[in-house]
């Protein structure tokens, strides 16, 4: 139990980070007074996502936290991607959509029932005093963090796409809906989160929204227009916006998570793009870790230091992964060509852990269909062993050696034929007589999406086969992943 250093804790924000922090502090430190501040004007919200693994971890400590009415959540193990007129199923591996409003209110109520927790319903505009420790868990737009932005080293970066978070009073299957228009696609992230309601997030490039007349429309008009565009998918149900117009996703990073006895948790400390479905899980884990660190140390500064050392590396890894997911959607929303199963494979493999071999193990039917589309027929071959013709060269595999000189490269076939390639860093203008393929250097840093971004963009725009030039030999599994995801056609051995 914590020593005399902590007798009072002020927690600002009643979302998952704040409520779970109060709940865990109350469980571990019954002699400590916890003031949980939550604003009075919380809207109805839409849905949140939790993986089954996270739910199991929460139940192990606070089994009552997820005892929700059946009408407040939905579960699934498969996601449908609707693309280019085709419905493509793939595994989701145990997910739940939960009513944000019901979940938040439930956990806040549980915390408030603890005898040493006081729930204070008001908007906080200044750091609560006196308190031995102040936890800022008041979200990405934390006013109190902004007041001390220099101390926390806060930076906020806006993404390139725009999104509108909506809900609809109907039960949708978990899905990605990709609807192509001339300027670019509208991408929908949708999932059920209650017995009669679903989350419906529309994401697109600003240029696409402008061309469709959606970007600057009042929310009510945008709701009606989007409901019309997606009438078939919604079954005629209406849409209600849960954000104030189209927004850029803002990635919040703080170089320091504490300033004296004030500490950040959840979205106030870090944000991850909604496409990862990890924001709520990160917030809960922050809260539990912080409370346990406080309980383990007499000095709150020591507790905060331990919390930072444990949670910051995890958050940084998750933000790096989220940056890759963000980049994939930004690239796709700029109008990359649709490739059916390969696009869905790219969507799935934007996360580093989802390599070809892992997806084949977990979702063999989907991966088999993807490789069959690549090959043009069912096959047991891996992507690197799917034959490809480049110019006059018939290749039996896609890991190749190139002869490079003067900005060009030559690919030689076993029968003496050859194909000529051009080394480029952008899509060439006009026709390229005598050029059979393009060679594009991989970026030296970043994850899978970032490293292969130039190759994927040029492949989409040029229509020519692409050879990815790498400085170090890629593991076969990574080469398989890039080819199956239509990021490249060939991988050139260094």
From TrEMBL:
**Any Pfam family hit:** FAD_binding_3
Q: Name one GO molecular function term.
A: monooxygenase activity
Matching InterPro entries: FAD-bd (IPR002938), FAD/NAD-bd_sf (IPR036188), PheA/TfdB_FAD_monoxygenase (IPR050631)
Top-rank taxon:
Bacteria
Record domain FAD-binding: where:
131-319
Keywords (alphabetical) are: Monooxygenase, NAD, Oxidoreductase
Instruction: Write down the SUPFAM superfamilies for this protein, in alphabetical order.
Output: FAD/NAD(P)-binding domain
- PANTHER family given in the database record: 3-(3-HYDROXY-PHENYL)PROPIONATE/3-HYDROXYCINNAMIC ACID HYDROXYLASE, BLR0106 PROTEIN
State what protein this is by name: FAD-dependent monooxygenase
Native source species: Paractinoplanes lichenicola
The top of its lineage is: Bacteria, Bacillati, Actinomycetota, Actinomycetes, Micromonosporales
């Amino acid at each position: 139990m914590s020593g005399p250093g902590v007798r009072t804790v002020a927690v600002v924000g009643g979302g998952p980070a704040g409520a779970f922090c109060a709940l865990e502090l109350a469980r571990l430190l019954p002699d400590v007074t916890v003031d949980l501040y939550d604003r009075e004007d919380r809207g109805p919200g839409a849905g949140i996502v939790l993986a089954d693994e996270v739910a199991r971890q929460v139940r192990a400590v606070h089994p009552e936290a997820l005892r929700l009415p059946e009408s407040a959540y939905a579960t699934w193990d498969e996601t449908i991607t609707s693309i280019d007129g085709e419905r493509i199923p793939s595994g989701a591996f145990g997910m739940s959509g939960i009513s944000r409003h019901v979940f938040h209110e439930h956990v806040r109520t549980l915390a408030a029932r603890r005898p040493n927790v006081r729930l204070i319903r008001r908007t906080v505009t200044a750091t609560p005093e006196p308190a031995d420790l102040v936890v800022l868990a008041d979200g990405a737009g934390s006013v109190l963090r902004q007041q001390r932005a220099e101390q926390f080293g806060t930076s906020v970066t806006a993404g390139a796409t725009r999104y509108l978070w909506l809900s609809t009073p109907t039960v949708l299957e978990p899905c990605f809906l990709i609807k192509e228009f001339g300027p670019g696609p509208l991408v929908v992230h949708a999932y059920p989160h209650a017995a009669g309601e679903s989350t419906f997030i529309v994401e697109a490039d600003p240029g696409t929204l402008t061309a469709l007349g959606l970007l600057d429309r009042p929310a009510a008009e945008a709701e009606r227009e989007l409901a019309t565009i997606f009438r078939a998918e919604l079954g005629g149900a209406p849409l209600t916006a849960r954000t104030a117009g189209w927004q850029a996703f803002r990635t919040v990073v703080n170089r320091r998570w504490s300033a004296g006895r004030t500490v950040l948790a959840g979205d106030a400390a870090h944000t991850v793009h909604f496409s990862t479905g990890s924001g709520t899980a990160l917030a809960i884990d922050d809260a539990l870790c912080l409370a346990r660190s406080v309980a383990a140390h007499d000095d709150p500064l020591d507790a905060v230091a331990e919390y930072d050392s444990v949670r910051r590396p995890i958050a940084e890894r998750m933000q790096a992964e989220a940056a890759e997911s963000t980049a994939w959607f930004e690239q796709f929303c700029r109008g990359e060509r649709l490739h059916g199963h390969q696009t869905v494979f790219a969507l799935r493999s934007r996360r580093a852990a989802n390599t070809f071999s892992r997806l084949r193990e977990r979702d063999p039917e989907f991966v088999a269909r993807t490789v069959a589309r690549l090959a043009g027929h069912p096959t047991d071959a891996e992507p690197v062993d799917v034959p490809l013709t480049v110019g006059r060269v018939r290749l039996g595999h896609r890991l190749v050696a190139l002869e490079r000189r003067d900005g060009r490269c030559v690919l030689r076939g076993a029968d003496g034929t050859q194909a000529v390639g051009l080394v480029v860093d952008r899509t060439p203008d006009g026709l390229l007589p005598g050029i059979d393929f393009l060679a594009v250097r991989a970026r030296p840093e970043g994850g899978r999406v970032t490293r292969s971004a130039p190759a994927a963009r040029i492949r989409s725009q040029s229509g020519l086969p692409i050879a990815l030039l790498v400085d170090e030999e890629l593991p076969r599994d990574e080469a398989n992943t890039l080819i199956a995801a239509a990021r490249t056609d060939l991988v050139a051995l260094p």
